[in-house]
Amino acid sequence: MKRILLLGASGSIGSQTLDVIRENHGTYELTAFSVGHQAEKAEEIVANFPTVTAVCFQNQEDADAFASEHEWLKVYAGDEGLCQIIEDTEVEMVVNALVGFVGLAPTLKALECNRILATANKESLVVGGKLINDLLDAGHGKVLPIDSEHVGVSKLLRKAKGKKIYKIHLTASGGALRDLPVDELEFATPEQALAHPNWQMGEKITIDCATMMNKGFELIEACVLFRRPMEDFAILMHDESMVHAAIQYTNNRYLCDISTPDMHGPIAYALAEGNVKYKVKSVRALWKLKKLHFHDFDPERYPCVDLAKRAYEMGGNALAVLNAANEVAVSAFLAGQIRFTDIAGEVAVALRKIPHLDDAPYEELVVTDKMTRAFVEERIRLGLQ
């Protein structure tokens, strides 16, 4: 029985992780979880998973109220609570389904405590990739991706051992605005940008799909996870989100990971540490996959990808700037404060203006994160777009 601590149980990835645990109750046990601001979901989770011994909330008030009615449970609160629950709870695996920079500290804590970390928290791999790999190289813990693209790459690389690889392709749907003319993007509404054609996800990641910042993040994640240079990876536009990743051999043959656009499969693969049966399809050319459509990536339509690549090349604290500026800009767009096209603009300005540090330990990343958020928030308040 693998004991699991689930961070972000109330979100999209978190709720689907609960499904996988429930469907495999003889294999996995939910020992602890966090629910952030959605305190009302904690009661239902505890009722459905009687093995739970600890819960973490974002607000102290919610934690106190829950603790008064559940004296047999350990209850934690705040960002500090996310790290403390990892340290105190005896589990084999931590699933990080948190969204944003808040996920970095728990990621590092899980590895420091030698836990297996299954993560969907893009931001921690983007911002703290070097810190994560330093811990792994020192023998602390293990990291497994939950993103469908990186799970696909993991499968494909296992099958492709000994063969010469020309390129590893991460596929992208293009998001909800993929068919909107470029000159109309600035007028796109949050409602339009949230209407993803293939996936049901949280608001922030859905907007990141529309700007394709998520794909820029995933390129960085791939470099971190697979210890490969950026030039090994490419983006392939794919309408149906059925092919999640593809390896292109030097003989121009493709090896593809294909499944329906549903996160239960990648989550199950991560929880099982890859010990599940799967099929990988090899084809002579992608056009042989009937009823599936592929297109070249257009960098001018999706400037956030180049911004992500630029931040990765800069290294140091530039990745914290990239993430923080994007988080603030996405929130502002959802609140109707800026235009859709201003998201990339705010990230670009932040990368130019925030002082760069080549060496960025965790403490400096925290400072950079706060500085960048304040900088972008002030620009938006003053209407400087």
How would you sum up this structure in a few lines?
The chain is 46% helix and 17% strand. By secondary structure, it is α/β, with parallel strands linked by helices.
Task: Give short descriptive properties of this protein.
46% helix; 13 strands; 15 helices; 385 residues; seven-stranded parallel β-sheet; 3 domains; alpha/beta
Description of the molecule:
With 385 residues, the chain is of the alpha/beta class. The chain has three domains: 2-145, 3-Layer(aba) Sandwich (Rossmann fold), CATH 3.40.50; 149-174 and 212-295, no CATH class; 307-382, RNA polymerase sigma factor, region 2, helix turn helix motif (Rna Polymerase Sigma Factor, Chain: A, Orthogonal Bundle). The protein is built from 15 helices and 13 strands. Helix 12 runs parallel beside helix 14 and helix 13 (318-334) packs antiparallel against helix 14 (342-353). The longest helix has 21 residues, at 362-382. 46% of the residues are buried.
CATH architecture identity of the largest domain:
3-Layer(aba) Sandwich
Mean pLDDT across residues: 94
The CATH superfamily of the largest domain appears as: NAD(P)-binding Rossmann-like Domain
> What is the overall number of helices?
15
* SSE order: EHEHEHEHEHEHEHEHHHEEEHEEHHHH
Strand share of the residues? 15-25%
How far apart are the first and last residues' alpha carbons, in Å? 53 Å
Q: Might you state the CATH topology name of the largest domain?
A: Rossmann fold
- Describe the biggest sheet? 7 strands, parallel
Widest sheet: strand order?
A: 4-3-2-1-5-6-7
The coarse overall form would be: globular
Name the helicity range: 40-55%
